[in-house]
Amino acid sequence: MFQECFHHSPRSNWAYAYDMDTIHLRVQTKRDDVEEVTAIAGDKYDWDSINEELPMLKIATDRFFDYWEAAVKPKYKRFSYIFRLRQGEETVYLTEDGICSDQPQPVAGYYEFPYIHEIDLFAAPEWAKSAVFYQIMPDRFADGDPSRDPENKAEWGGQSTWESSFGGDLKGIADHLDHLTDLGVTAVYLTPIFQSPSYHKYDTVDYMKIDAHFGDKAMLKKLVRDCHDRGIKVVLDAVFNHTSEHFPPFQDVLKHGEQSKYADWFHVRTFPAEVKDGIATYDTFGFYGQMPKLNTANPEAKQYLLDVATYWIRETDIDGWRLDVANEVDHHFWRAFRQAVKDAKPDAYIIGEVWNDSRAWLLGDQFDSVMNYPFADKVLGFFTGEGLDGRTFAEGMNHLLMRYPQGTNEVIFNLLSSHDTPRVLTRAGGNKLKLKLAVVFLMTYIGTPCVFYGDEIGLQGGNDPDCRPCMEWDEGKQDRELYDFYKLLIGLRKSHPALLSGRFRFLKADGGDARIIYERLGEGEHFTVWMNPTGERTVLEHAMDTNDWHDALTGDHAPAKDGVQQVELDPYGYRILRREL
C-alpha cells in the first residue's frame, strides 16, 4: 500500500458531526490501492466495554485517490478512533501518531472526537434542503408599474447593454407569481433592489431604501407576503464588499478627506481619495473607482451593515441573504453577520458568492451555502462540450463532493447559469438535448438547485451583458416544451426525499466512454440515472440484484435479466429509474 497517500484529519470534512447523534469519518487512500478500510471506535473512558468496528464504504474516487466513509453513533457523544487498512495479506493501522503494523493499545495516540456540541453543528435551514430556487434580475423580469420607469428606459426586449434599463420592478415580479408556482419553484433570489444609479444595483447608494424604479418597502412587504402564501421563500442580495461612489459616507470622505468621520469606513491608501491616471487612491471592487470597498473591520461600518441585514428581515420577513463578493470581506464580519441574522430569523438562509473552494466559509460559523460555480463548470463542460469521458467527469465531481461534509453538500447552491455567466442553452450551442441532460443532472444531484430566470423558456445569451435579456412573456415566443420539461424535473425532485439528501455515487463512469450511470440512495427509495451524452443510440448495462425498477417519470417497469439491467437510450438521452426499499 502507498502509505504516503493515506490522509485523515480530525476536523472539517474528514471528521465532522452530521447531527447530534452521528459523526462521519473519512479516509483518503491511493486510487485502487486498498481493498478494505475499517474504523475502530470506542469510548476513551471505557474502551473495554464500549467499542466497535465499522466497515467503511468507498464513497468516491477522483484522479489520484479513493475516499472512504463510515458513520459513527457514539453512546455518549464522544469517542476515540483509529483506522485499519488492508490490501491482501498486508494490514496497517492509521493513528494520530502515525502508521503502524499492529493495533496500538487504546487510547493513547488515537484520534479523538471529544464531544458533539449542538452549538458547533453545521446547521443550515431545513427548508433549504428541499428548495428549488429561481434567480431574478428585477429590471429584466417584468415591468408591472410603468409609472416607475427610469427616464432612459429602453424598449422591453431590446438588446441588453451595460447601461440599458428596461423598467422591470417588484410589481412585475408579483404579477407573475403564477408562473413561479406553476413551474414548481419554492424560493426566489433577487439581485439587489436597493437605491442605486445602475440597473443592476450592485453599487448601492442607500441600503435602507428600495430603489424607486423598483418600488418601495410596502411593495417588498407585499411581495414577500404573497410569496409566502404560495410557499415561496424570498432571498435578497446584499452588497457589503463595496458601495456606490454616491454612498453618502463616501461622499463625506471625498469632501473632508482624512477629517471625515467616515474616513476609516473605506480603505483609502492616500488622501485625497480620488482616481488618478485611471487608478483609485482607495481600494475598490476590481478597478472600478465608482465602487469603493468598505472596511468591514471598522466598528461603525460593521454595525451599520449588520443593522441593514436585520432591518430588512424584521421589516419585510425575507428569508435570507445572498452575499456579493463574499470572499473579499473579512471572516470576523461574516461571523458577526451570521449571529445577527440568525438571531433575527433562525432559519434564514445565507449564501455567499465564492467561486472557488469555500471550506473556510462553511464551517458552521459563517455561511450556510455558496454559489457552486465549480459545479456549473464541470457539468456544462461535460454535457454541453465535446470530448470529456465519464471517468474524467466523475473524478471532477467526486473531488468537489469531498471538499465538504455531507450536510454542506445537501444545501450547496447549485446552478447552471446566472447573471455573471453565459446562458445554459447558449453554452449548449442551442442544443436542447444537451441542455436537458445538464438539467436532469442538476435536479437529481445532491444540493439546492437554482434556475436563472428565462432558462426554462429557452432564453439565450453569452457573457454579461448578453446573459441578462428581458424575460419573454409572450407564450407564442416561449419554448413551452422546454418549460414543461423543467416543470417535470422540478416536480420529480420535490416528490422524492432521496433526491434531496440521499447518497450520491457514480456506478459507471469509464475512461474513453462518455456514458454514465449514477445513483441516489435514501431511506425507502433508490434511484439510478442513466445518461448518454453522445450523438449515437446506445444500450447501457449494469449489474442489478433486483428486478423491481420502474421509470420514475412514466411508471413503466424496467426489467433486469439474469442479474443485469439494460437500458436503451436515444442520442443525448437519459432515463431515471426508481425502486422502493
TrEMBL record:
<dbReference type="Pfam" id="PF02903">
    <property type="entry name" value="Alpha-amylase_N"/>
</dbReference>
<dbReference type="InterPro" id="IPR013780">
    <property type="entry name" value="Glyco_hydro_b"/>
</dbReference>
<keyword id="KW-0326">Glycosidase</keyword>
<comment type="similarity">
    <text>Belongs to the glycosyl hydrolase 13 family.</text>
</comment>
<keyword id="KW-0378">Hydrolase</keyword>
<dbReference type="InterPro" id="IPR032091">
    <property type="entry name" value="Malt_amylase-like_C"/>
</dbReference>
<dbReference type="Pfam" id="PF00128">
    <property type="entry name" value="Alpha-amylase"/>
</dbReference>
<dbReference type="InterPro" id="IPR006047">
    <property type="entry name" value="GH13_cat_dom"/>
</dbReference>
<protein>
    <submittedName>
        <fullName>DUF3459 domain-containing protein</fullName>
    </submittedName>
</protein>
<feature type="domain" description="Glycosyl hydrolase family 13 catalytic">
    <location>
        <begin position="135"/>
        <end position="493"/>
    </location>
</feature>
<dbReference type="InterPro" id="IPR004185">
    <property type="entry name" value="Glyco_hydro_13_lg-like_dom"/>
</dbReference>
<dbReference type="InterPro" id="IPR013783">
    <property type="entry name" value="Ig-like_fold"/>
</dbReference>
<dbReference type="InterPro" id="IPR045857">
    <property type="entry name" value="O16G_dom_2"/>
</dbReference>
<dbReference type="Pfam" id="PF16657">
    <property type="entry name" value="Malt_amylase_C"/>
</dbReference>
<dbReference type="InterPro" id="IPR017853">
    <property type="entry name" value="GH"/>
</dbReference>
